[in-house]
Amino acid sequence: MFRETNSRSIVKGITWRVLATTTTVIIVYVFFGRLDLAIAAGILESVLKVALYWAHERGWHKIRWGRERISPFNLWFTGLPSSGKTTIADAVFVELEKLHIPLERIDSKDIRDLIPNIGYSREERNRHLKRVGHLIQTLQNNSISTVASFISPYRESRKALREMVHNNIVVYIKADIETCKKRDTHGNYDKALAGEYPNFTGISDVYEEPKHAEIIIDTDLLSVEEAVKIITNYVKKHYIK
Amino acid sequence: MFRETNSRSIVKGITWRVLATTTTVIIVYVFFGRLDLAIAAGILESVLKVALYWAHERGWHKIRWGRERISPFNLWFTGLPSSGKTTIADAVFVELEKLHIPLERIDSKDIRDLIPNIGYSREERNRHLKRVGHLIQTLQNNSISTVASFISPYRESRKALREMVHNNIVVYIKADIETCKKRDTHGNYDKALAGEYPNFTGISDVYEEPKHAEIIIDTDLLSVEEAVKIITNYVKKHYIK
């Protein structure tokens, strides 16, 4: 939340005064045809009204009516490991921050500082994402929008999340599994193929494609820049007044 | 965050106009001594300037300068089990909400939806509170203040938390262990004394009294209402402009 500083009220008063007194001088001149008196009236008006305007601004600053809470949204990036979720979500976050809306980035990696990842079974993954949903709820209660990127392979957990949060926008980052393997700089796919990871999405565990994604980004066809543009335009069109 | 609605700008314009045009009419009358022309000038001014004022308001609404982020605080209630932390923190939260600052209540019980409590050993408690600290950081990054109540028995975890968050206010809810036992409606103390809980603070585990608490509430001497007053006054004095 923001408060308006005293200097803001004063400078607003000055810009308004230039606009308003010029108008007064013109009106008085039109009515009375005497420029000297019109200007004198203008000067007196300026002095008086700068003070009045300041008091008026500070008074209104205390009134809550007409200040509307911004409605938050949740951009939810889902897709195979190394499909490009984090890269695109990071770039979208940078773009959306330029709009000066309250915004938080949530990535499956960073979230472990906050919520320990208890395991990779279906049940554990679902429980983990429910906790992430609670975090998004807490942020949304305070008008904060979120850019979240999680593999989130199961329909049931994405559905549970959609029911928990407001203005949920599922962005499916679509990539061929061969493309993902090429993009994987950590050798995770190789390790999974070697049997080291028993629940690796795409190899030893299923990825259930979203059926109701608001946005589908086919990374085999679109560049990161193009993807970012599509996603930010969607957000601007639907959620930024 | 809030946005200002169009109606707010319009109504502000009207209240300002009444104030401003009355001044103009008086000035013109003083200069020219003709009430009829003074009023005519006032009417013309009103019509023109209501529109100008509206445009001026909407223009300024787009300007961020002079809008200051509210600096968030963290009220951290610590004390023995059943000392009265939750009761007092709940009442403080209700009082502070009346100030219309962005505020979130965090209690050791409710937090489990978000952060699973992994255990009660010293190491596990410290890790848990560090996660709570991350949550408070995330909220503070978005100007949200917090009212948190956790037994938090160890100095090291309270110290770690103080280093993580801004404007930390430790409120030590002091109560004699006999008083706590009487207040305990769940029979937890009895179970702990019977050896059922191996890490129960005050019985089978230590509570390290805070040495640097900003506020100490001796619940044997103060009523809940008195405690709430002391705490909210502290917050108002230091953190509410």
UniProtKB/TrEMBL annotation, chains A, B:
<keyword id="KW-0808">Transferase</keyword>
<keyword id="KW-0472">Membrane</keyword>
<dbReference type="InterPro" id="IPR050512">
    <property type="entry name" value="Sulf_AdTrans/APS_kinase"/>
</dbReference>
<dbReference type="Pfam" id="PF01583">
    <property type="entry name" value="APS_kinase"/>
</dbReference>
<feature type="transmembrane region" description="Helical">
    <location>
        <begin position="14"/>
        <end position="32"/>
    </location>
</feature>
<feature type="domain" description="APS kinase">
    <location>
        <begin position="73"/>
        <end position="218"/>
    </location>
</feature>
<dbReference type="GO" id="GO:0019379">
    <property type="term" value="P:sulfate assimilation, phosphoadenylyl sulfate reduction by phosphoadenylyl-sulfate reductase (thioredoxin)"/>
</dbReference>
<dbReference type="InterPro" id="IPR018638">
    <property type="entry name" value="DUF2061_membrane"/>
</dbReference>
<feature type="domain" description="DUF2061">
    <location>
        <begin position="10"/>
        <end position="61"/>
    </location>
</feature>
<keyword id="KW-1133">Transmembrane helix</keyword>
<dbReference type="GO" id="GO:0070814">
    <property type="term" value="P:hydrogen sulfide biosynthetic process"/>
</dbReference>
<keyword id="KW-0547">Nucleotide-binding</keyword>
<protein>
    <recommendedName>
        <fullName>Adenylyl-sulfate kinase</fullName>
        <ecNumber>2.7.1.25</ecNumber>
    </recommendedName>
</protein>
<comment type="function">
    <text>Catalyzes the synthesis of activated sulfate.</text>
</comment>
<dbReference type="InterPro" id="IPR002891">
    <property type="entry name" value="APS"/>
</dbReference>
<keyword id="KW-0067">ATP-binding</keyword>
<comment type="similarity">
    <text>Belongs to the APS kinase family.</text>
</comment>
<dbReference type="GO" id="GO:0010134">
    <property type="term" value="P:sulfate assimilation via adenylyl sulfate reduction"/>
</dbReference>
<dbReference type="GO" id="GO:0005524">
    <property type="term" value="F:ATP binding"/>
</dbReference>
<keyword id="KW-0418">Kinase</keyword>
<keyword id="KW-0812">Transmembrane</keyword>
<dbReference type="GO" id="GO:0004781">
    <property type="term" value="F:sulfate adenylyltransferase (ATP) activity"/>
</dbReference>
<comment type="pathway">
    <text>Sulfur metabolism; hydrogen sulfide biosynthesis; sulfite from sulfate: step 2/3.</text>
</comment>
<dbReference type="GO" id="GO:0005737">
    <property type="term" value="C:cytoplasm"/>
</dbReference>
<dbReference type="Pfam" id="PF09834">
    <property type="entry name" value="DUF2061"/>
</dbReference>
<dbReference type="GO" id="GO:0004020">
    <property type="term" value="F:adenylylsulfate kinase activity"/>
</dbReference>
<dbReference type="InterPro" id="IPR027417">
    <property type="entry name" value="P-loop_NTPase"/>
</dbReference>
<dbReference type="InterPro" id="IPR059117">
    <property type="entry name" value="APS_kinase_dom"/>
</dbReference>
